[in-house]
Design brief:
mainly alpha, Growth Hormone, Chain: A, two-stranded antiparallel ribbon, two-stranded antiparallel sheet, 21 helices, 4 strands, 71% helix, Nodulin-like
C-alpha cells in the first residue's frame, strides 16, 4: 500500500540515511592527527615515542567500541549518538587546553583525553552502522561503503578547513575538532533510528537514490584531489584557498537532498516479504539472481570460540595496524624526507581512504554475487598495504605521494570489508559487540607497531644523528629514520595475507551462490 507524503517524512529510511551521512562526515577526524602532532611534540616537548603512544591512545579510543556495542541493544540509537558527541567535545577540549598550555596534566592524562575524544566516534559509528544495516538489509555492502566513504573523506575535508582558516595555528584547529562533531551529532541524533520496513514503490528509485549518494561523495573526492594537486604545483593565495573551501562546504549540503531524489511513494512489505528481508534478500528480485547461505546468529562468547574469528582478528590487525602506523607518523616521515606539504599528504590519505571504502563496497558486492568470498578481497587489500610499505622503504621523496594514495586506498577498503564480513560470518543480532571486539585488533597492532617499533627506532636514529649535541633534539632526518620500520610493517602484512588466505578457504561455503528460479520448488527452501 502507498504511504502518504506526510507520513513518509517520519517513516522514510532515506531521511535516516541522510542523517547518517552527516554524522559520519565528522567521523574521520582521528585521521588528521598528523595536522597537529608536530605542534604537540614541539609545544609539550615530547619525544617521538611519546607522540606515537599518544597517537596509539587515539587509535584505542577510536576503535574500542565494545561498550557502545552492548549499549546499543539497551537504549535507542540517539542515546549512543549523543554520548559520542559529548565524549568528542570534552576529550578534545582537554587536549586543546593542554596544547594552549592553560593546563599541565600528566602525560597519561593527555593520552586519556585524546582517547576519550576519539572514542566518541565509535559511539556514533556503532549507532549509525548497525541501524543502517538493519534499515537496508539487502544493500549492506553499498550502504556501509557509502557511510565509510564519508568517514574516510572527512579527514580531507577537515584538513582542507585547517589549511584555509587555521594554518599554522594547530591549537585552534583542535578546538574546532572538539566543537564541530558535537554540534552535528546533536543536530541529527533523533533521525538515527530504526525505520518501518518500507520499500520504494518503484524498485529503480532505490538504485537512483544510492547513485545520487555515491555521486556526491565522488564529486567531493575528485574536487579535493584536484585542489590538492593544484596547491602542490602552484601557489594559491589565502582568499582563493578560502573560496575553494567554501565550494566544498556547499557540495556538502547536497546529501540533504537524498530523501527527495525520486518519488516519495512507498509500499509496506507483507509479513512474508519481511521474513525474507530479515534473511537478507529481496523477496522476488533476489531469487532471480542468487541466494546465499545465511549464517547462524552468534553471540559474542560463541564468536570468540571460533577459529574464523581469530583469523579475521589477526588479518585486520596486520592490514589496519600497519596502515595506522603510517598515518600517525605521516608528519614525521614527511619531515624526515624534507617535505613541507604535510596537510597535502593528510588530504591524499583521506581522499583515497574514501575511494577505497567506496570501491570496496561495490566491488565486493560484485565479487560475492559472482560467487567469490568477500574475504578474498580482504586478502588483496592487505597485500597492497604490504607492497606500499616496501615502496616507502625506498626513501625517495616522490614515493610519499604514491604511498599516501595506496595507504589510503588499502586502509579505507579494510573498513568497508571488515564490518560486512563480520555481519556475514556472525550475523546481525549481536553484531555491535562482535564487530567492536574485532576492531580492537587495529589499535592493539598500531600501538605495538607505532610506539615500540616506529617510535623507538626513530628516537634511536635521532640519538645517533645528534650524538655529542647537548640539546635534547628529537628530530631525525633521512630515509633511514623509518626504513627498518617499513620493512617490519611489510613482513607483518605478509603474515596478515597468510591468515586471510586460511580464512578464505574456511569461509568459501558461506559465500556459495545458488541460482534459483523464483517459481521453482527449490525457491521454497530459501
Amino acid at each position: 500500500m502507498a504511504v502518504s507524503s506526510w507520513r513518509w517524512l517520519n517513516e522514510s529510511r532515506w531521511i535516516g540515511l541522510a542523517a547518517a551521512v552527516y554524522a559520519e562526515a565528522c567521523g574521520g577526524l582521528a585521521y588528521t592527527f598528523a595536522v597537529y602532532s608536530d605542534h604537540l611534540k614541539e609545544t609539550l616537548g615530547y619525544t617521538q615515542t611519546q607522540i606515537d603512544a599518544l597517537g596509539s591512545s587515539k587509535d584505542f579510543g577510536g576503535n574500542t567500541g565494545v561498550i557502545s556495542g552492548l549499549m546499543y541493544n539497551l537504549f535507542p540509537p540517539w542515546v549512543s549518538v549523543f554520548i559520542g558527541g559529548t565524549c568528542n567535545l570534552f576529550g578534545y577540549l582537554a587536549l586543546w587546553m593542554t596544547s594552549k598550555q592553560w593546563i599541565a596534566p600528566p602525560y597519561w592524562l593527555v593520552c586519556l583525553s585524546i582517547m576519550v575524544g576519539a572514542n566518541g566516534e565509535t559511539w556514533v559509528g556503532t549507532a549509525v552502522m548497525v541501524t543502517s544495516m538493519q534499515t537496508f538489509p539487502n544493500e549492506r555492502g553499498v550502504v556501509i561503503g557509502l557511510l565509510k566513504a564519508y568517514i574516510g573523506i572527512s579527514g580531507a575535508m577537515f584538513a582542507r578547513v585547517y589549511k584555509s582558516f587555521f594554518e599554522p595555528h594547530a591549537s585552534a584547529y583542535i578546538l574546532m575538532q572538539a566543537v564541530a562533531p558535537f554540534a552535528v551529532s546533536a543536530s541529527v541524533m533523533f533521525f538515527i533510528k530504526q525505520y518501518p520496513v518500507l520499500r520504494d514503490a518503484d524498485v529503480s528509485e532505490t538504485a537512483r537514490r544510492f547513485r545520487w549518494s555515491y555521486y556526491i561523495v565522488v564529486v567531493l573526492a575528485v574536487y579535493l584531489m584536484l585542489i590538492t594537486i593544484v596547491e602542490s604545483v602552484a601557489e594559491v593565495g589565502q582568499a582563493w584557498g578560502s573560496t575553494l573551501t567554501g565550494v566544498m562546504m556547499a557540495v556538502l549540503l547536497l546529501p540533504a537532498a537524498i530523501p527527495f531524489v525520486g518519488g516519495s511513494e512507498y509500499r509496506r512489505l507483507s509479513d512474508a516479504d519481511e521474513e525474507q528481508v530479515s534473511g537478507g534478500e529481496e523477496p522476488t528480485l533476489a531469487l532471480e539472481k542468487f541466494v546465499r547461505v545465511v549464517p547462524p546468529e552468534y553471540t559474542l562468547a560463541e564468536s570468540l570460540r571460533t577459529i574464523d574469528y581469530w583469523l579475521l582478528f589477526f588479518a585486520v590487525a596486520a592490514g589496519t595496524g600497519s596502515g595506522l602506523t603510517i598515518i600517525n607518523n605521516l608528519a614525521q616521515i614527511g619531515k624526515a624526507l624534507d617535505t613541507k606539504s604535510i596537510s597535502s599528504f593528510v588530504s591524499l590519505v583521506s581522499i583515497w581512504n574514501c575511494a577505497g571504502r567506496l570501491l570496496a563496497g561495490y566491488t565486493s558486492e560484485w565479487c560475492v554475487k559472482a560467487g567469490y568470498p568477500r574475504t578474498l578481497m580482504l586478502v588483496g587489500v592487505i597485500a597492497v598495504m604490504g607492497i606500499t610499505q616496501l615502496l616507502l622503504a625506498s626513501g625517495a621523496a616522490f614515493t610519499l605521494y604514491i604511498g599516501s594514495i595506496l595507504v589510503g586506498l588499502s586502509y579505507g577498503a579494510h573498513w568497508t570489508l571488515t564490518p560486512v564480513i563480520t555481519s556475514e560470518m556472525f550475523g546481525l543480532k549481536h553484531y555491535g559487540a562482535i564487530y567492536n571486539t574485532v576492531t580492537i585488533s587495529s589499535p592493539l597492532a598500531a600501538y605495538f607497531l607505532s610506539t615500540w617499533v616506529a617510535g623507538v627506532l626513530y628516537d634511536r636514529e635521532a640519538e645517533v644523528q645528534h650524538a655529542g649535541d647537548p640539546s635534547p633534539a628529537h628530530t631525525c632526518h633521512g630515509p633511514e629514520c623509518f626504513r627498518t620500520t617499513l620493512l617490519i610493517l611489510a613482513a607483518v602484512c605478509a603474515a596478515g595475507v597468510a591468515c586471510g588466505l586460511v580464512l578464505v578457504s574456511r569461509t568459501r561455503a558461506l559465500y556459495k551462490v545458488h541460482t534459483v528460479k523464483p517459481d521453482s520448488e527449490q525457491a521454497k527452501h530459501y
